[in-house]
Design a protein that fits this description.
Layout (H helix, E strand, L loop, with lengths): L13 E5 L3 H12 L15 E3 L5 E5 L5 H6 L5 E5 H10 L4 E6 L5 E8 L4 H6 L4 E5 L2 H11 L3 E5 L6 H4 L5 E6 L3 H5 L2 E10 L1 E6 H6 L1 H18 L1
Parallel strand pairs: 1-3, 1-4, 7-8, 7-9
Antiparallel strand pairs: 2-3, 4-11, 5-11, 6-9, 6-10
Length: about 230
């Protein structure tokens, strides 16, 4: 299959921001379906700008939480990020991002999890003030505010499951895929907040000025994501 960009190359290549790991791995088949292959792996290459088989597209490798920032400020024309990351970003930095496509990859849930044996429902019912550890502070704040639950939010950047085990928090708000890490640390999901998947995001200015270059790729992503749904 030929790339949708072959006839659209004009000036600088389109820049797609991706993060290492699951999102990168699950984006590759969508690019393959568009006739594009990434010629180097971020796991083996030290390069942060990766070429593709199409001269009209290059990949930049950034932290997952930084993808929306690179796209919003025009360092990347488009990117792939989880809804959890996008929701946190948009609250702090409104405007500048267009989210046209749910790619149906990176699926998981944002959940409240607590130690096995902790009576979360009873604590909520009697109005206890809970300490919640999370890196998704805004999502957690909105969730508990809507329920009328009083919480103290403790922002962490990793090893969330450790917080209840050492008495730092009563519960956590985190992403859950298989739940294996929770079970290994004697935690269990006590409440689902929202289903998460990864989205294609586009810089709004780029969409106006480079639509003739971006639209074939957007269409290819849309077809591939629908096929994988």
């Amino acid at each position: 299959m030929s790339s949708p960009l072959n006839s659209a190359v004009s000036g600088a290549p389109i820049t797609l921001a991706l993060s290492k790991g699951r999102i990168f791995d699950e984006t590759l088949p969508l690019l393959d379906a568009a006739g594009i292959t990434v010629t180097e792996s971020p796991e083996t290459s030290r390069k942060l700008i990766l070429p593709t088989s199409d001269p009209g597209l290059r990949i930049i490798i950034v932290r997952a939480s930084d993808v929306p920032t690179y796209v919003q400020y025009g360092a990347a024309d488009l990117g792939v990020a989880g809804k959890d990351v996008l929701d946190e970003h948009v609250i702090e930095h409104p405007g500048g991002l267009y989210q046209p496509i749910d790619l149906n990859i990176g699926k998981c849930r944002l959940c409240v999890a607590a130690p096995v044996g902790f009576d979360y429902e009873n604590a909520v019912r009697r109005g206890a003030r809970l300490r919640i550890a999370t890196k998704y502070v805004e999502a957690a704040r909105q969730h508990f505010a809507a329920k009328g639950v009083h919480v103290d939010l403790i922002k962490l950047y990793g090893s969330m499951e450790l917080a209840p085990l050492v008495g730092l928090a009563d519960a956590i708000v985190d992403l859950v895929s298989t739940g294996g890490t929770l079970r290994a640390n004697n935690l269990t999901v006590v409440e689902d907040i929202v289903d998460i998947s990864s989205r294609l995001v586009v810089n709004q200015a780029a969409l106006k000025t480079r639509r003739h270059q971006l639209q074939p790729l957007l269409d290819a992503f849309s077809r591939a994501s629908q096929a994988s749904a």
